[in-house]
Amino acid sequence: GQQVMQIPQYQHVQEGEDFTTYCNSSTTLSNIQWYKQRPGGHPVFLIQLVKSGEVKKQKRLTFQFGEAKKNSSLHITATQTTDVGTYFCADFTGGGNKLTFGTGTQLKVEL
Amino acid sequence: GAVVSQHPSRVICKSGTSVKIECRSLDFQATTMFWYRQFPKQSLMLMATSNEGSKATYEQGVEKDKFLINHASLTLSTLTVTSAHPEDSSFYICSAASGGVGTDTQYFGPGTRLTVL
Questions:
Q1: Within an 8 Å CB–CB cutoff, is residue B104 touching chain A?
Q2: Is the peptide bond before A8 cis (omega within 30 degrees of 0)?
Q3: pLDDT at residue B101 above 70?
Q4: pLDDT band at B102 (very low <50, low <70, confident <90, very high)
Q5: Residue A92 Cα, gap to closest chain B Cα (Å)
Q6: Contacts of A82 (CB under 8 A, 6+ apart)
Q7: Going by C-beta distance under 8 Å and a sequence separation of 6 or more, which residues neighbour residue B79?
Q8: Could you tell me what percent of chain A has a pLDDT over 70?
Q9: Looking at the partner chain, which of B43, B60, B95 has a beta carbon nearest the beta carbon of A88?
Q10: Contact yes or no for A33 and B104 at CB 8 A
Q11: pLDDT digits (tens, 9 = 90+) for A65-83
Q12: 3-state class of A83 per DSSP?
């Protein structure tokens, strides 16, 4: 079956440093969604990318969809302690509305 | 925004007992609800898709007789873990989707942490 892997698994940064998580799929992605899960919390929808090569920005967050639609990335500029959490990408299969989650990247931000 | 609730938020039970978890969409009608399981420091794994008025669709490897799903109304789906064992201890999260709210968006409940002794 489809495997959606994310690297790195963990990332510790100093506040103010940048952070990037990469999402790679064994098969072509339909639409890619990104979620943030705070410790002890539930996933919160961040964004959806649909088109090949698409780039979207939300304040300090930049999301990119690969040209071949087999990978995606999330980049955070100048991290803050509020960015702490686990970031998941997920392949959204429109036909069944199913989400296949990536393995996640846990981000820790130190002062 | 769309709100999904789950009850209970935390449950501890003895091995062999059954546990029911409720998932409710509070301000929209959800034709489809999803049930996920998340073990510590792992990703969310889809267990089943619940459609109102029809049988749930289970993912490969998920026992339908052990994880009973009922989607009785457009705002309520329940997951019953039958004859629970310690290996069933996990974080169970539901999500709800509705074409009226945004077809591509799923709204997640706060999760239910199940501990089986």
A1: yes
A2: yes
A3: no
A4: very low
A5: 8
A6: none
A7: B20, B21, B23, B35, B47, B67, B68, B69, B92, B94
A8: 97
A9: B43
A10: yes
A11: 999 999 999 999 999 999 9
A12: helix
